Amino acid sequence: PEQDKHRTFLRIEPESGVPTQVSAKFQLNVLMQNVSDVKLFQNLPKAFVPVMWYENVAETPHEMVFQMKMISGLEDILGASGWACCGLGIASFLLYAIILLASCRMQHETPILTDSIVEDSDNEVFQD
């Protein structure tokens, strides 16, 4: 037998454990030998005769190859997404804190014109 044509094998994607190619081959042989009581088999040499050959081959369709690659990289994709969400959360918190501090600072600053323009003597004029 030729190993490339007759071997049984199973290829598995290492990250997900999904079989990508399966090939099962089987041959059934029958022992034929001399049978003295049957005229047809009296002068028959002892030999194995192949009776049946079974072969079943299955492969992952080419359309699913991209999906298989995505599944194998899913841990990295989800990890990066998680870190990106954490980064966005921290950036949002810092932006909120800066805006809040700027708002508080604007409220506590004294205006430029703190003294009254009207003098105290002018207040007496308008009194009854």
Quaternary structure? single chain
> What is the number of strand segments?
3
Query: Largest beta sheet: what is the strand line-up?
Result: 1-2-3
Distance, first to last CA: 127 Å
Can you characterise this structure?
The protein is an alpha+beta fold and 128 residues long. It is 41% helix and 24% strand. The protein has four helices and three strands, in the order H-E-E-E-H-H-H. It has helices spanning 3-6, 65-72, 74-108, 120-125, and strands at residues 9-12, 19-32, 47-59. A three-stranded antiparallel beta sheet has the order 1-2-3, with no helix packed on it. The radius of gyration is 45 Å and the shape is rod-shaped. The mean pLDDT is 82.
